[in-house]
Amino acid sequence: MPICIQNDLPVKNTLLEEGVIVIEENRAKNQDIRPLNILILNLMPKKEETERQLLRLLGNSPIQIKVEFLHVATHQAKNTANSYLKKFYTTFDQIKDKFYDALIITGAPIEHLEFEEVNYWKELQSIFEWSKTHVFSTLNICWAAQASLYHHFGIKKEQVDAKIFGVFEHDVLIENHSLTRGFTNSFLAPHSRHTKIEEEKLSTVPELDVLARSEDVGTLLLATKDLRKIFITGHIEYEADTLQNEYLRDKNSNLPIEVPYNYYPNDDDTKTPQNTWRGVAYLFYHNWINQVYQLTPYDLKELAK
Question: Can you tell me which residues form the catalytic site (predicted)?
Answer without folding.
Answer: 142, 235, 237
